[in-house]
Amino acid sequence: MKILRLHMIISVVFSLGMMNLAKGQESTTQKFKKLEWLIGKWQRTNSKPGQSGYENWTKVSETRFIGKGVTLKEKIPVFTEELELSIKGDDIFYTVVVTGEPKPVDFKLTAIGKDAFVCENPEHDFPKKIAYKRTGKTVKAIVSGDGKSLDYNFTRSHD
């Protein structure tokens, strides 16, 4: 009887372990799909006085979104960056091309949840980390590294 009970306990523990393993084996495509909430236009709500800004994200394919981040001073762009979220191999990358910079910078996705994700590139000067968190119709993007941090607060735009 003790052997049977022990066998049942081992079976249950093994089954639970396999379920957790299967859950942890989420495909890159499944993870990428969790980022779809980002698609659309996001108006910046914490710009400096006299400035405004936005991010606009478009779904190009099941494995690629393109975005554009713009800071305006009285309707004139003073800072522009081309953004991309894409699957490359078995990983997801957030790629940034800043106007005037010679080449793109890749940040590898290191954490993802239903309403948040983190991408990192420890070799880059600044930022080293880019994190997005959605709460309802608002998004906070935080770029950080080497003790510095900048917050970008957005609300979903309807235009």
Describe this protein's structure:
The chain is an alpha+beta fold and 159 residues long. The chain is 18% helix and 53% strand. It has a ten-stranded antiparallel beta barrel. It contains two helices and ten strands.
Blueprint (SSEs and pairs):
Layout: H1 2-24, H2 28-33, E1 40-44, E2 51-61, E3 64-73, E4 76-88, E5 91-98, E6 105-112, E7 116-120, E8 129-135, E9 138-145, E10 148-156
Antiparallel strand pairs: 1-2, 1-10, 2-3, 3-4, 4-5, 5-6, 6-7, 7-8, 8-9, 9-10
Features:
globular, 10-stranded antiparallel β-barrel, 53% strand, alpha+beta, 159 residues
Strand residue content: over 45%
**How would you classify the helix and strand content by structural class?**
alpha+beta
Major sheet: arrangement of strands: 1-2-3-4-5-6-7-8-9-10
Largest sheet: 10 strands, antiparallel, barrel
Shape: globular
Helix-residue proportion:
10-25%
Cα-atom Rg, whole angstroms?
A: 20 Å
Quick summary:
With 159 residues, the protein is of the alpha+beta class. It is 18% helix and 53% strand. The protein has helices spanning 2-24, 28-33, and strands spanning 40-44, 51-61, 64-73, 76-88, 91-98, 105-112, 116-120, 129-135, 138-145, 148-156.
